[in-house]
Amino acid sequence: MDVNFNPDKQHTLKAAVSISGTGLHTGVMVDMTLKPAHPGFGIQFQRIDLPNQPVIKADCDLVTDTSRGTTLQVGDARVSTVEHLLAALVGTGVDNVLIELNGPEIPIMDGSSQPFVALITETGILEQEAAKAWYSIDENIYHYDEEKRVEMVAMPALDYQITTLIDFNSPVLGTQYAQLKSMRSFVQDIAPCRTFSFLHELEMLLENNLIKGGDINNAIVIVDKPVKPEEMGRLAKAFNRDKIEVKNEGYLNNLELRFPNEPARHKLLDVVGDLALIGYPIKSRIIANRPGHSTNVAFAKKIKQYIKKNKHVKDVPVYDASIAPVYTLEHIEKTLPHRFPFLLVDKIIELSDKHIVGIKNVTFNEWFFQGHFPNNPVMPGVLQIEALAQTGGILCINAMPEGKYDTYFLKIDNCKFKQMVRPGDTMILKMELAAPIRRGICEMHGTVYVGGKVATEADLVAQVVKRAGS
């Protein structure tokens, strides 16, 4: 991140960029392309080699395996070893990206995040108009795993900071710690740090054919016990080397350490990548003692539940007029074809791949009050639904590939008007996807909140249609 990087704005890539490499555990050669995405899209993976090209969101609730890296899965579609790429995206400030790959595993490259950081830097990072909503941790959140002797805590802080401590009872490693005081230091201090493995773990993986894509340059190998010459010969053969030796420091002679505490720094890198699966950018000081993928993911789930529980009171969206909106009126007009007097959304304050929150300020000067109960002004219910429809249209269009689109509503069900909307009211318009968008068909549940109470709600179905020539 350079000095002009604005952490309070969302960012994507300036252009698509590709890389190829072998998966560490599967041994499968994978082609991977990172593509720009709309604000609120988040980080999503797409297996373009599978039928229907399924999409898998970077979400801790979708983690199915943490035994040798972090694996996400939806149905039969899997993407494994995602942590190093996720760390690179967080460390460079990329919020919205579609990651297309034609295999089941992210390429291991050199075992660090550096190759992915170089890829992102090569194409460039684009600041988007949308504001980035940070979530503050207002109380200590603890996670313990007595069996693995892991302790993790998230504490209130003004920035995102991480400290990791490792102690594997190894005379080679000893006790190490690493610290990241600001994500601006990630690229230089953390991204180059490679994964590490103990020799006895490496032997087990080789015996069970669990590192089919392994290469001696993928990892730091720690040797904390005597090794017979015949074992060294077997390792040299496995990694296509003439000879392998153990350095005096207790490491295989495959590479030089990039930092004296590179193993601890890599554990910090893994924490950054795994906590990206929270799905919300956080401001907190994280302290992790002996972290691993399983505990990182369990901790991510705990933080995610805390945010979801405290993000809204009784699920009513919070509107703070002093906070910059995700989309201003000018951006809304670029997305929707509606104009005065029929544009009924003033701003967008929240936007993700599954929900959107808009604002409509109702004033006495609205055109419809001239003829709708002039002496007792009440906003027509049909226009409240239209305001929800326009808000939902932005959500649907935002999920589409590049181009210009219109939304046409097909059905309205379960419509209820529970409270009148009058001049001076602020309508908070919330639309949530009830099902994934398929073939341009969007099923949504809409709610209008006024004064902290539900005024109107309905289930709506719309179709997104690409404009001719776009």
Please provide a written account of the structure.
By secondary structure, the protein is α+β, with helices and mostly antiparallel strands. It has 3 domains: 9-192 and 260-310, Ribosomal Protein S5, domain 2; 201-252, no CATH class; 329-466, Hotdog Thioesterase (Thiol Ester Dehydrase, Chain A). Helices cover 21% and strands 31% of the residues. The strands form 6 sheets. Strands 11, 12, 13, 14, 15 and 18 form a 6-stranded mixed β-sheet that branches. Helix 4 links the parallel strand 16 and strand 17. The longest helix is centred in the middle third of the chain and has 19 residues, at 293-311. The radius of gyration is 25 Å and the shape is elongated.
Please outline the helices and strands.
Blueprint: E1 9-13, E2 17-22, E3 29-36, E4 43-47, E5 55-57, E6 63-65, E7 71-74, E8 77-79, H1 83-92, E9 97-101, H2 114-123, E10 125-131, E11 135-136, E12 141-145, E13 150-156, E14 161-167, E15 175-180, H3 186-189, E16 196-198, H4 199-207, E17 220-222, H5 229-238, H6 262-275, E18 282-289, H7 293-311, H8 329-335, E19 347-351, E20 355-361, H9 381-398, E21 405-417, E22 426-433, E23 441-450, E24 453-466
Parallel strand pairs: 4-9, 11-18, 14-18, 16-17
Antiparallel strand pairs: 1-10, 2-3, 3-9, 4-5, 6-7, 7-8, 12-13, 13-18, 14-15, 19-20, 20-22, 21-24, 22-23, 23-24
Protein name: Multifunctional fusion protein
Keywords: Cytoplasm, Hydrolase, Lipid A biosynthesis, Lipid biosynthesis, Lipid metabolism, Lyase, Metal-binding, Zinc
Pathway: Glycolipid biosynthesis; lipid IV(A) biosynthesis; lipid IV(A) from (3R)-3-hydroxytetradecanoyl-[acyl-carrier-protein] and UDP-N-acetyl-alpha-D-glucosamine: step 2/6
